[in-house]
UniProtKB/TrEMBL annotation:
<dbReference type="InterPro" id="IPR002048">
    <property type="entry name" value="EF_hand_dom"/>
</dbReference>
<feature type="domain" description="EF-hand">
    <location>
        <begin position="5"/>
        <end position="40"/>
    </location>
</feature>
<dbReference type="InterPro" id="IPR011992">
    <property type="entry name" value="EF-hand-dom_pair"/>
</dbReference>
<feature type="domain" description="EF-hand">
    <location>
        <begin position="41"/>
        <end position="76"/>
    </location>
</feature>
<protein>
    <submittedName>
        <fullName>EF-hand domain-containing protein</fullName>
    </submittedName>
</protein>
<dbReference type="Pfam" id="PF13499">
    <property type="entry name" value="EF-hand_7"/>
</dbReference>
Amino acid sequence: MTTRPTEDDLLALFTQADLGGDQKLDLMEFTLVLDELGLAWTRAETQDRFERADGNLDGFISFEEFRAIMESQGWAERPLPGARA
């Protein structure tokens, strides 16, 4: 993906990466999203961002957590509806 994703793009990426269909991403699924976005990081960098995104510390990233991290890092096209400033 060469441009910053819109909310619809983010939802599509999230859904595609959600291999378990459980509406949450584990670390491997999160890595798939990053790869699709062209964000290539070391394992440590990916782990760090995953842990920062996992706001409720359940070991998974919900779509809301995913949206928040994408917007806060400037990886979304614009502030997403419902995202915290």
